[in-house]
Q: What sequence folds into this?
């Protein structure tokens, strides 16, 4: 797809036009991931430009009931998870209608800000969403490259 189409895809109904990413499921126990979208990310590994914020949209089905959910994001380098702060870790403030109900589908929406001071490196982004019992509703990984 052309870059202009991808920029236009950032509009309101954008995520429907985004290409689903190939991701690794890293332990979704209490949910099952249907689709992961990172916008803009036309090719993999995703090139994450410093000073830019990326839209994350994860469609998943819950296998459990939970009052709430919390996101944890890591940059994985040499099999070490480095916590990566996100502006809103509360899943109930990120597109998920809480309480979470068993058998329902949810669209989790968040932002991934890439700060200017981050080093230019290749790494794995690991994104977890845990329920009230600290079990994983979803966990996915994608390769990224942080670039200027």
A:
């Amino acid at each position: 797809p052309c870059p202009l189409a991808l920029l236009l895809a950032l509009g309101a109904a954008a995520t429907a036009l985004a290409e689903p990413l190939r991701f690794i499921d890293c332990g979704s126990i209490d949910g099952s991931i249907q689709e992961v979208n990172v916008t803009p990310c036309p090719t993999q590994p995703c090139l994450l430009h410093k000073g830019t914020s990326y839209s994350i949209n994860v469609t998943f089905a819950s296998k459990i009931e939970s009052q709430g959910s919390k996101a944890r994001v890591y940059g994985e380098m040499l099999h070490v998870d480095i916590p990566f702060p996100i502006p809103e870790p509360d899943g109930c403030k990120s597109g998920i209608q809480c309480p979470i109900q068993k058998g329902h589908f949810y669209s989790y929406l968040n932002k991934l800000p890439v700060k200017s001071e981050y080093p230019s490196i290749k790494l794995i982004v690991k994104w977890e969403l845990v329920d009230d019992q600290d079990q994983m509703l979803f966990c996915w990984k994608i390769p990224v490259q942080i670039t200027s």
Observations:
- The chain has a mean pLDDT of 88.
- The two ends are 23 Å apart (CA to CA).
